[in-house]
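Minutes, methods subgroup
Present: GH (chair), OT, SY

1. OT presented the first of two proteins processed in the latest run. Sequence and structure tokens recorded below as shown on screen.
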Amino acid sequence: MKVPRGEGLFAGTAWHYARYRPGYPQAFLDDLIHHLHLTGPSRLLDLGCGTGQLTLPLAPHVTEAVGMDPEPEMLSEAARQANNLGLTNVVWVKGNSADLPADPAHFTHVTMGRSFHWMHRDQVLTALDEMVDPAGTLIIANDSCLVCPSTPWQQAIEDIQRRFLPPDHQHGPAPTATPDRTHEQVLADSPFPRVNRRLYEFQRPWTLEQALGYLYSTSLPLLELLGDRRPAFEATLTDTLLTIEPTGHFTEPVTLEVLTATRT
């Protein structure tokens, strides 16, 4: 599906993002629901929500969920999925971390799934100090990336993608977060310095269709860069991956890091 690309970091990717970005493991979601006691009245902000990969599974367990993202297309896809699921307690808000504080009401919990590295972290945490209830919690979740190779089939994807990109291509915007400080170190110097770190390790299954769809969901404007070379790219990728694994089913080892931060 050809999608027009706008000016934002993930503009034009929402259709693929909603269908091919993997969700989060049920064990993590169950632990989060249990740890945060999401059975009582609570209000959740999912910052950098994308198409709702974290907002939607948590929404049934809170009084109200607010998904915030700078891309209108992402929010439209998220709203469509929420409607399909019959969720009526989710509000979708266009905005980015620079717009905080964006809501006069306070939140019990704030989640940031695969998004904190795109933000000005110190600025965001200072703003959230005004928005989060005194006993509130921040949850930052980041996992492995399909295009960071750890297996032969992932390495093949990276090699083929590099071959098909224009030689003068710039690799796209780098994350805003500087590598000199980890998320934990940033949190330690913030209003939310009490941090618990937990890792979830598991195997994530992929099909050829899912892997290709994922490539079109990233901040790299791959569809635009491929142009009329898209059919050749897809054919080369398919042939190469089937040579590696004829079943067309692949496995990615994943480590999900979850940081839960509160005030002292």
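2. SY then presented the second protein from the same run.
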Amino acid sequence: MSVATTVSQPAPSKPEPGPSLLNRMIVRPEIGSALGALVVFLFFSIITDRFLSALGVATWLDDASTLGIMAVAVAMLMIGGEFDLSAGVMTASTALVTALLAVHAGWNVWLALLVSLLFALAVGALNGWVVMRTGLPSFIVTLGTFLALQGLNLGVTRLITGTVQVSGIRSAPGYSSAGWVFASTTNIGDARIQASVVWWIVLTAIAALVLVRTRFGNWIFAVGGSLVSARAVGVPAVRTKILLFMTTAFAGWVVGSCNILRFASVQANQGVGLEFQYIIAAVVGGCLLTGGFGSVIGAAIGALIFGMARQGIVFARWDSDWFMLFLGVLLLSAVLVNNAFKKRAERVRR
């Protein structure tokens, strides 16, 4: 007589629950800047009526746009573990090259823009190559570039024009079409939205896609997190960092082009000191000073906070000197919050 035996099967294991909504939010570097932007927006919306008017919204978007273009590029570079202190003066250098060629050499504006773009990309590539070739900190290398460009701007402009300003580009051939691309306005109701705002949105979207959806974006996080480890797994570190410096220079060209075609004049010392605001906006947006962590969307939001706060102070009729106090408190708070968020994100990912 045979006896049937049955083998008990182990009960299917329950799938592990996914991370909670809170944990998914914590791992996003831009969450802190988004909360900060909401607070600033609500605060100035309550204390002043002009802040939410069509003119008010257009004003603080315009204020934030050129800062946002640069902050996005600087954020990508910081995620890659580097700094560019020549970013501010680059906006003036490219504008001066365009203006001098178009006004004093009689070139078509589009050709002058092309030459200024090539100039910017060459300087960015040189910065990246020197940093990777010598191993010097990018802080020192780009500080040297900053001083060199500032001296070049002043010396060449004074030599050609006898002053430290170039103006008159509106009479140059090709200005109308170039001005439409870089300096036109779009009416939305009573608001006049500048072309720089469109450039800001488009470049932020492109940078965000590159950073989180492409192999190059993975390389940026890798070289910023650990250069030695990135090289060990085959990441082209030299190429990646050179391209990041060129990206920052390209953003400087965009901002310089928007400024010269909109205002039709440029000062040789324009942009000096703004490089620190770009870095602060990136830090407020979630970038760590040590690299390997951050968000370009967060950097764009950080620039938005700048624009809202700077114009909100004006609308509230406060002394504008308070804005520097706001920047100092904002930077310190952002560094503390970013470190806390990064530690929490590392625990969540484990």
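Chair's summary of item 2: Confidence is low (pLDDT under 50) at residues 1-11.
Next meeting: continue with the remaining queue.
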